[in-house]
Amino acid sequence: MLVLERIQAELDAHPMVLFMKGTPEYPMCGYSSQAVHALLAAGADGLRAINVLEEPEIRANLPRFSNWPTFPQLFIHGELIGGCDITLELHESGELARIVAEALPK
């Protein structure tokens, strides 16, 4: 499977995907850590996280796929929401909790 097809398959299979450095339990950069904390605080218990440090092909190709140069990258229902700054802004405004609740029904 080509890497772009693999990225698309992940997005098709999971309502919410965070491409990050490290894992939610062990984030390997401050931005990924902040995004995970915001998502978990917003109730994203079913979050699918992809560690781009262990997936060099995804790390190299995702910026071209999404037209977003940095990590983390949050996708909901296959659409790029953004990186750390946008995730934090959505959390601070209360929108992230609503988005998460709609994307990950209990």
TrEMBL record:
GO terms for molecular function: 2 iron, 2 sulfur cluster binding; disulfide oxidoreductase activity; metal ion binding. Residues 17-81 form the Glutaredoxin domain. Keywords: 2Fe-2S, Iron, Iron-sulfur, Metal-binding, Redox-active center. InterPro entries: Glutaredoxin, GRX_PICOT-like, Monothiol_GRX, Monothiol_GRX-rel, Thioredoxin-like_sf. Glutathione binds at residues 21, 59, 71, 84-85. It comes from the Bacteria. NCBIfam families: Grx4 family monothiol glutaredoxin. This is Glutaredoxin. The lineage of its organism: Bacteria, Pseudomonadati, Pseudomonadota, Gammaproteobacteria, Lysobacterales.
